[in-house]
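User: Quick sanity check before I run a bigger batch. Here is a single chain. Can you write out its predicted 3D structure?
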Amino acid sequence: MQPNRRDFRNPFPRPWMRDTAAAAPASGNIGLKGIVAGGLTGGIEICITFPTEYVKTQLQLDEKGGRKQYDGIVDCVKKTVKNHGFFGLYRGLSVLIYGSIPKSAVRFGTFEYLKKLAMDEKGALTPSGRLLCGLGAGVCEAILAVTPMETIKVKFINDQRSGKPRFRGFFHGVSMIIREQGIGGIYKGLVPTILKQGSNQAIRFFVMETCKDLYRGGDPDKKVPKAAVGAFGALAGACSVFGNTPIDVVKTRMQGLEAHLYKNTMDCFLKIWKNEGPFAFYKGTVPRLSRVCLDVAITFMIYDSIMDIFHKVWP
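Assistant: Done. Predicted structure follows.
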């Protein structure tokens, strides 16, 4: 006998998975809907927020001394637009667009699978279960999608910093990286990326779902407005930024064109600490904070909205 969904409180509610007439037939392709919705959401979100990601990466790659190129966020934007035009702020965008669909598939697919395994007999998931499911989703997406995507993105941005950029486009750049460095050339910084994505998703899913539960006040069927979802997403994004920006800085250095200067992740960490001081681990925090808060807020809002539409037009 199937349990009634209203008999327990689901800490990971999804509007499109409630006990409506369309819920049952949608169960067979809900994963496919999630992949498509995630890809659409990622493309829209990236186009809106990528300039802040570009500036953050440039500031994180910037070093002290004679090799320092920028005096801050505004200076970075001005010099980029002056030297490369407005669309210079979108260098490396294609990498994230190409990687948005597989990243979304791995993240949400792994999360839902682990959630199903971790739920108790009543369908409930403990707070520690939320963290672990988010962590598992982040680790899987880091290995299967994010590391190669992020490595290529950083190398493209790093290439533009040189006097004579070598990459003429996405496929040309990727083929050159693999030809010169092998397949390992797009897997630089795997360890810090796993740490970053694992902590990212653990923090974000925990904060988001906890805020939703608090808003509902014990009523699992109470609808959370999109504006509230956006606010919760922004808070979740901010928590993840302050929690793992040092990891993000190390990851960026390990994925840059000068990654050969570091033996491994720990060596990179120690050299940054020794040569640039502890505050170097928070380079690019402001642009990253603005990007991530907007990113997570938009992602949850648009994703929920697209899934609502799919629920009506895609049986």
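The chain has ten helices and no strands.

User: Great, the batch can go ahead then.
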